[in-house]
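Researcher: Please generate the 3D structure of the following complex. Treat every line as part of one assembly.
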Amino acid sequence: MYNALAIEDLGKPVVSLVHPGFLPDARSAASSRGMPGARIIPLNVPNEGRIASEFEAGAIKAMPDIIDGLTKPLTAEEKSPTPRDATTPRIAFRGNYEAVNRFYYRNGWTDGLPIVPPTDAAVKEMLTGTDLPADHIVAKVIPRLGKATVEKIAINAVMAGALPTHMPVLIAAVQALEDQRTRFDTFEVSTGSWAPFFIINGPIRNDIHVNFGSGALSPGNIANSAIGRAVGLIVKNIGGARKGIEDMGVIGNPSKYSLVIGENEEETPWDPLHVERGFKKEDNVITVFFPNNFLQNVPGGGDAQGIAQSLASLQPISMSAVIVIPQLAKTLADGGFTKERLKQFILENGAPARKTQTADASTVLATPPRAFNTEELMILVAGGPGAWAATLRSVGGISNSFVSKKVELPRNWDELVKKYRNIVPVYVEY
Amino acid sequence: MKNKTCLLLAAMLTIFLFSGLLAAQEPKITVLNPLGQPPPIDKIPMAPRIGNLDGKTIYIVDIAFTDTHQLFTEMQKLLSEKYPKTKWEVRIKRGSYGDDDPKLWEEIKANGHAMIMGVGH
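Model: Done. Output below.
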């Protein structure tokens, strides 16, 4: 749509053709960029279909509207659209706990789960997690470029159940999403349901209890759950990515609730991710990319070669993270595998040759494995006792990069950690 | 029996009224708005429509979404048959659907009268 508006701005009329299911998305894009009256025609052809007779039928049906869109004079409303008030009041609502939750849910401001009401007091406490002023703009979040002020981040953080000690990580996460190299502008809104995967490195992992051990990707730890959840609410509420309107993920992805992990820097035989990416060991860093695919296997063969082969068989492709538990990482390292050598091995032994067919199904072709470079693959050491390995892959996307941002701590960090450090689950002994 | 029914109804009414009273006394909280403020929107005026197709050049631009080209090639064929006095030019945008193509826009600015753009499906 943005291209269509740019051409209109050059004085050339445009008609945009979209699948009916994408009409709200197209209208939202057009209005957010200043042309609510853009002429958008629904074309009833199956999504990504290939049948010529269906194309012909759809095109013939839409043709009168296409021609009208190009030739009929502009209406008064199209020439001068009625301005809409887009200001957001600071106070949203007043009511009891249940009424607040119903109100937020009905407005589409939640992820479907109850939220912690963002009262003034709760947000003020959340703001103790940063030295930045409340009105400081951290980023403008796609798709509607909403201003992520520190206060807005704090409001969504309260809703998610985050602690003030999570604020520095959230601020860095939002900065990372704004970085063009992530291509978050495409991943968040396109059909593949990609979810942000955040990897946290540095001493902060232990300060705020980021799980990098047993069940690191499962629910149950406030840091892993609330940080990811808060980012999801930030993208939805500050960025304006509404499901089915701007977020056009076809199937959806439960990882959009939260996908956050720490790296086990204490037990990795290699440099941890952030050091590999140029940071100092003592830096606190968050790294992000957008997988939409999660596979696990039990590596076969007890030796380094067998384990490496099993990791390769998970078929990590362009932009993937391979998660290796400490015990397997040690075996690999003892067997002579550096991180770089392991990545190279996976690249060479990973995705097999694929067969494809031409549209008329008459020819079968063999295509070689898709080559990717080792910079598109990350190796993380995390997980608990056992024998599993996992890969998170970004499938069907566009060219992008892992992006890392340093996490800046407030001056009162030690006091904050002391205040919130003991919020941990204490399991009953049976 | 009648007395027992009356007592039961009275008890239910009391419970109902009491729970309503409790709900009314539940503290109310004032909560803040989580929405981000988007930038002010500068309106882009729509270009005047071309009125008549005869003698015009209309670009049909495939934004490089999956399988769009086959659809747009079919559309070009149909439009050329129905409007033979109009030139229908199909182009594929450079890169992926998320990328820009300034050279194509320059071409359309220089040589085109209008554009059809899409995915369509």
